């Protein structure tokens, strides 16, 4: 980590300055304490000689004041430098972390253990690397500060009557508070907590239904709110005082410690230094002024000393180890091994052949999703020739989408082999395979970027080619409605950086009855009331289709395989017809594989139809062949056709 930060010029300078200022800051309290001790000696000498060296008093007082000013300035510089260094280190490591995230394949990324490891490496507020640097520097500086203060304090208390006793008694109170705090925050045993109360679980579930926006449509349309409030109130009444979160219940449980023996001793121990002082004042009345000054100096210094000493103890036996453990996790994510192993061979050998499509063959392929016992596919075999249009038909959950995921090597089959142009798919470089493939998944997503970038990322080699983006939008049927949007192709579907408003909710009134309205502020700032652009399901699918077409329009003509998973699920009949007309124009130039649960426009035009049921291939062939077989395909096709016959 030190080498990594040291290699970054934008980080090294500010980290070095931070260390220097922090070190200087450690010397100032000891100097201030020494000057306070000198003032105490001046008072003591004045009591004995009845005279005061005014020049000395002025110099000492001025020096003590300068120490206070320097302390304040150094704290300010230290904070400013730490803020800059933190931002620089965070920016430096975010690229490293994002790269570690981005290179992971799907099964590896979905692993909960990997997710936990990635989350531990990503510090949103304080970067892991900066936290380690700050913890080490701060702990070392505090240790240095303690040694210096302890040395000065010992010199100041030397010769002071009962100085060590007063220091010890003053130290006892913060020590007891610290021990109580550690027992509360850092329990010594390993523990876990769960909730078995059905009423509380149900009450929290009802609260989430009401508060979370995901459930709002169903709740409002279903007229559920009165019932939900009634259920919540009934559960709350049954729970009574037990209707609290884990931390509330823990606090309630901890309340009994307020009547422990240590709680009764805390106040008397805190007053012990004053009691000892009072007893000594009775014995030596003439020394009261000096003793009072000594008591004040001892209490203020020892309390600060105790806080720092105990804090250093916590850091040395906790935070430093945790910080370096977190740093190790940060670098460990670079070494996470992907489940899908990259192939050694380039693809294709002849780019001109890929422009005419690729062949796809499954040989006795079976597959289980990670962590699942049931087969998503079992014993599947078929072959799609170069340039053919294939339609995979089946019910939801039959395994259609899984086939497309295996073809793109999002997963590897549990058994059997997949061949691309008669080559085992595992031997092909992943980047080459995916460069030759364009896919639209049923559960597609749109990125929190502009529409232009959403489409452009379909071809990462030409993501900003406006002509290609607009042509892809036309092929996907999205061009017309995107052009009508106020910001056109620059529109954000879901703006990743939200606008921030003051704490006064819009539509409410202030204390003096004035209505809260952000209209003028939005107009001045050029902001929108909504951070999301509302599009219909069909429009969203057209954008996803446009991104798929973007890959096939590249000037290098590298795509030979187009995969569409339920491409018309959200399209109206006219849009569906137009889409398939455009796709048919590509027939013979690309290998196209469609999955669907509906018999539609493509059935009569498909070169091969594969019928899947319960994870198995039930039958395959052309439309005419399958109709002659008069089995599952023919029966379902005839059943659906009856709906359109008079």
Automatic annotation (TrEMBL):
Phylogenetic lineage: Eukaryota, Fungi, Dikarya, Basidiomycota, Agaricomycotina
Molecular function GO terms recorded: ABC-type oligopeptide transporter activity; ATP binding; ATP hydrolysis activity
Protein name: P-loop containing nucleoside triphosphate hydrolase protein
A Pfam family hit: ABC_tran
Record keywords: ATP-binding, Hydrolase, Membrane, Nucleotide-binding, Transmembrane, Transmembrane helix
Transmembrane spans: 12-35
Stretches assigned to the ABC transporter domain: 360-639
Record bears the keyword Ribonucleoprotein: no
Gene3D superfamilies: P-loop containing nucleotide triphosphate hydrolases
Keyword Isomerase: no
């Amino acid at each position: 980590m030190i080498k990594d930060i040291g290699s970054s010029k934008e980080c090294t300078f500010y980290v070095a300055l931070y260390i220097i200022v922090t070190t200087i800051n450690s010397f100032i309290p000891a100097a201030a304490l020494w000057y306070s001790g000198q003032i105490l000696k001046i008072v003591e000498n004045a009591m004995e000689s009845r005279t005061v060296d005014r020049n000395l008093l002025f110099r000492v007082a001025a020096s003590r004041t300068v120490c206070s000013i320097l302390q304040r300035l150094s704290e300010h510089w230290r904070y400013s430098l730490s803020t800059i260094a933190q931002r620089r280190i965070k920016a430096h490591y975010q690229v490293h972390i994002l790269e570690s995230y981005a290179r992971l394949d799907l099964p590896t990324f979905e692993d909960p253990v990997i997710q936990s490891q990635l989350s531990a490496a990503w510090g949103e507020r304080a970067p892991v690397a900066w936290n380690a640097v700050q913890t080490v520097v701060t702990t070392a500086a505090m240790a240095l500060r303690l040694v210096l203060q302890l040395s000065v304090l010992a010199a100041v208390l030397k010769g002071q009557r009962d100085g060590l006793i007063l220091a010890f008694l003053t130290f006892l109170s913060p020590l007891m508070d610290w021990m109580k705090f550690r027992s509360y925050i850092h329990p010594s045993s390993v523990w876990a907590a769960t909730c078995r109360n059905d009423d509380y679980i149900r009450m929290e579930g009802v609260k989430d239904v009401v508060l979370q926006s995901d459930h709002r449509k169903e709740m409002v349309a279903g007229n559920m709110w009165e019932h939900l409030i009634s259920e919540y109130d009934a559960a709350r009444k049954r729970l009574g005082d037990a209707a609290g979160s884990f931390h509330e219940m823990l606090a309630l449980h901890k309340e009994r410690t307020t009547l422990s023996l240590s709680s009764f001793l805390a106040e008397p121990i805190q007053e012990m230094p004053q009691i000892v002082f009072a007893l000594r004042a009775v014995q030596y009345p003439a020394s009261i002024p000096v003793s009072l000054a000594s008591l004040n100096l001892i209490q203020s210094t020892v309390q600060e000393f105790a806080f720092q000493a105990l804090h250093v103890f916590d850091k040395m036996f906790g935070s430093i180890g945790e910080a370096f453990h977190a740093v190790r996790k940060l670098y460990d994510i670079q070494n996470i091994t992907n489940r899908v192993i990259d192939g050694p061979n380039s693809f294709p050998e002849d780019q001109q052949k890929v422009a005419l499509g690729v062949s796809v063959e499954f040989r006795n392929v079976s597959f289980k999703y990670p962590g699942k016992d049931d087969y998503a596919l079992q014993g599947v075999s078929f072959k799609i020739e170069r340039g053919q249009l294939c339609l995979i038909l089946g019910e939801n959950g039959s395994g259609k989408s899984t086939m497309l995921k295996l073809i793109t090597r999002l997963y590897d089959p549990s058994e059997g082999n997949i061949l691309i142009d008669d080559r085992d798919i595992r031997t092909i470089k992943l980047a080459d395979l995916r460069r030759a493939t364009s896919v639209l998944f049923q559960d597609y997503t749109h990125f929190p970027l502009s529409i232009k970038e959403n489409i452009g990322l379909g071809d990462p080699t030409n993501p900003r080619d406006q002509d290609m983006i607009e042509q892809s939008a036309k092929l996907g049927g999205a061009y017309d409605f995107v052009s009508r949007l106020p910001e056109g192709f620059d529109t954000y579907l879901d703006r990743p950086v939200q606008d921030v408003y003051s704490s006064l909710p819009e539509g409410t009134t202030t204390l003096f009855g004035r209505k809260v309205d952000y209209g003028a502020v939005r107009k001045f700032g050029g902001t929108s009331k909504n951070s999301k652009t509302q599009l219909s399901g069909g429009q969203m699918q057209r954008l996803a289709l446009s991104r798929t077409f973007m890959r096939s329009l590249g000037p290098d003509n590298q795509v030979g395989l187009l995969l569409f998973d339920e491409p018309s699920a959200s399209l109206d009949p006219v849009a569906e017809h137009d889409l398939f007309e455009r796709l048919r124009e590509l027939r013979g130039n690309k290998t196209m594989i469609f999955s669907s649960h509906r018999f539609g426009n493509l059935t009569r035009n498909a070169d091969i139809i594969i019928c899947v049921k319960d994870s198995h291939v039930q039958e395959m062939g052309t439309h005419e062949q399958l109709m002659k077989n008069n089995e599952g395909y023919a029966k379902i096709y005839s059943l659906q056709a009856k709906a359109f016959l008079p």
